[in-house]
Design goal:
Strand content: 5-15%
Shape: elongated
Strand order of the largest sheet: 2-3-1-4-5-6
Number of strands: 6
Oligomer: single chain
Helix content: 40-55%
Distance between the termini: 27 Å
Amino acid sequence: MSDSLEELLRQCHRTELLPLAEVLKIKPEGMALDVLARALSSRVRQRGAHIVANAVVRKGEGPPWTALVRGVARRQNILLSGDPKRAELEVLAWWMGEHWSKIGTPHRKQLWTLMEMEGTPPEEGKAALVEARRQHPKDHEYLTTRLGIKALMFAFIPGGGCLMAWFWGRPRDDLLVRAILKVAQLRQALMHRVTVGGVGSPSSGKDAAIAAIFGFSQGNINPVAGSTTTVEITRLPQSTELFVVNTPGMGDIVEAVTERAREVLDLIDVYVYVVNAQGGVQAREKADYDRCVASGRPVLAVVNKIDTLRPADRERYLADAREKLGASESSFLAAAFDPLPQLSETPIGLDEVQDWLTQQLVALGKSPSELPWHHA
């Protein structure tokens, strides 16, 4: 867990930060994402620590986020494992253990159903966490952060002792615990939310590429947002938060899609840019590829339909295509996602494309378990 809370918040979408802004009583109107992230980080670090210590020792600045979490753990007798990456989750587990049983049975059932859990919800928080792990072994931490946030609606924080009667200037644990739970949820969402952009002209075989890579046909799954004539955004049903964005090109596309589609486009983690081996790299391909690169996200250029080229011509063609695109050797592959049946019954080059995606997403701190080829 980074000491820089602001850095984490900057990786979120602006709308995801609004619940935290409400907890911290910050009015976000007119604030850009970076400004809002800075304001949230500053407010929670100031309010979550001793006011006098902030003024005298830190000259108005609060302590690092990890120190705030450790402080709550110390004051509430929460045993931390020592792994800073798990500290927020351990505070969440403590909170669930303390307050789940205080939530009325109807509300527990409501939350249990909302989180797509089967059976009757346990009455004790620790048992609820164990059951969540059993039913959702792959994404139980993501699930329980959502469960904890929803449970906040029906429980007081934190209760027990003198938390609601602080001496002047003491840390605001009521506010800080709420913030920790919301930050834990944001961190888990960032880890599990994977958005892959598939880009290429209609003749590139992009749809076949998406079907081969992710194991589904968009013709059989209704997009969750966007315009079917310009961009399709599909949430894969067996993943926690895996979205595939299918677009014929990047030029002026943001102006043509719905607000929800624009939000998802802003959250793309990696791009797979598909080039037709028969058409080559033309002005449109170069422009669209450059727009993907300009986003600052990793971009894999894949020359598709390589099976249609004569073997003697392939090496020369690939070298020419890579040079025209300006792609690096490590982010340039050849494939045939729907090859000629006489050459292969399965896609050619698919493993290399999937390996590249895995490596890039892991480097971004994403959970590879979201990818369908990593499903147990």
